[in-house]
Amino acid sequence: MRIRSLFPDKLFILNNYNNHLSAPLLSRYDCYFCIIINLRMATGSKIRYFFILLILAFLQPSCENNKNDVIPDTYTDFTIDISGDIFFSDLNSIGMSAIVTSQTNNWGSRAGGYDFNGIIVYRANLEDFFAYDRTCPHDYAVNSLSIKVRVDFTQAICPQCSTYYELSAGGISSSGPGKYPLKNYRTGFDGRYVRVSNY
Q: What burial class does residue 166 get, using C-beta atoms within 10 Å of its C-beta: 0-12 exposed, 13-18 middle, 19+ buried?
């Protein structure tokens, strides 16, 4: 009775699931719903139902994010001083970027990005910075090539496939064949130092 009042639109799906009928138009969320309700009916425990639902809620977004991240992970962890290091003085202005490589400040591989192509650090506004791997995700996913994108003001452009990536919009492609965004790294800013990492 409580299932009917809480989820009236899912009752048909639940009945089909329990009767083992095929329903080709069910979404993965409807399937999760059916499995969870079935587990709840089998266990009879509201606490178990809650934890199963919570686990599935956390797993779904992480699976979606990993589908778009085609560039393999490499250990990345470095800190930029935008006020004290002349090399990064451009980052004091909104809409500007800097390219960091393994040779920058002798940081080595922790600042090299995938295949030592480097990392783009872009200032989006007064408080937010974005960091992207310079490896073109389209060429890597389609042809297994490691091609460096070049930066042109607020865009990164792949010289191989001619995909344009928007640095101000999370590295998504705005034109060209690429459908994956540039690999994003985590950033933090305290007013002077920008930390870039992948953990």
A: middle
- The model's pTM is 0.68
> Residues 184, 135: contact at Cβ < 8 Å?
no
> Which structural domain, as residue segments, surrounds residue 7?
2-68
Backbone angles phi, psi at 91, to 5 degrees: -75, 0
Average pLDDT over residues 99-119: 94
Last residue of a domain, one of 23, 43, 68: 68
Distance CA 99, CA 120 (A): 5
DSSP 162: -
Cα separation, 152 vs 114, whole angstroms: 20
Q: CA 29, CA 137: separation in Å to the nearest integer?
A: 29
Amino acid identity for residue 30 in this structure: D
